[in-house]
Amino acid sequence: MVAIKNLLLLVSTVTAAAISKREIYAYFNDLDSINTKCVDFVPIVYGYYGTLAQTIAVKNAQDAINAGVLQAATETTKTTGPITDEQTNTLFTKLDTLHPNVVAVMKSIQDKKPEFDKAGTSTAVVVLITTVFESFHVLQANTLPLVSEKYKTAAQAKGDVINEAIADTLRFYGKGV
Question: Is residue 109 a part of any domain in this protein?
């Protein structure tokens, strides 16, 4: 009886550890997906010249980024922290990779402002950017509890840099954040 109880305890412990590990790596995969969606977004925006089809393509691409960010934020709520130092380094590498691609997305949106204005879609673009901005804040807020205390300041700074790139674009469009 004791042996069965100990075996069940061992199985539940191993299963719990595997779930936490899988979930942090699911989160990392989500970050990779967001990064890919950002890379894919830039040529869609630069190809925008005001047609309805292009407007829909831009909206769909922005929605895909936002959905990816929200999915990643959901994964963070399933993961128990603090994550290991190795996982933190992986997280930081992924955020460092994501940052320039978020900047490229925001630059493309700024560069195409005249076309968005001409087509009357600037307000819709701002709404979409605002949604992504808010989603990144949720992601950052959900990520910080996963990081051990010694990395919290660095994690906060990495998230702030990404959020600031988005905020700059909102300010460029005349929206305060």
Answer: yes
Given a contact cutoff of 8 angstroms between Cβ atoms, the answer to whether 66 and 135 are in contact is yes
The tens place of each residue's pLDDT in the chain, 177 residues long, gives 444 333 333 333 333 333 345 578 888 999 999 999 999 999 999 999 989 999 999 999 999 998 988 888 887 777 777 889 999 999 999 999 999 999 999 999 999 999 999 999 999 999 989 998 999 888 888 888 888 889 999 999 999 999 999 999 999 999 876
* Lookup: tokens for 78: 């399933």
Rounded to whole angstroms, the Cα distance separating 91 from 81 reads 13
C-alpha to C-alpha distance for 138 and 130, rounded to whole angstroms: 12
Residue 177: Cβ within 10 Å count: 14
Q: For residue 81, what is the DSSP state?
A: S
Q: What's the structural domain count of the chain?
A: 1
pTM of the model: 0.80
Tell whether 104 is covered by a domain.
Answer: yes
* Residue 177 counted as domain residue: no
82 is in which domain, residue-wise? 2-172
The answer as to whether 29 is a domain residue is yes
Contact 35, 97 (CB under 8 A): yes
| Distant-in-sequence, close-in-space partners of 81: CB < 8 Å, separation ≥ 6 | 145, 146, 147, 148
Secondary element (H or E) of residue 160: helix 152-172
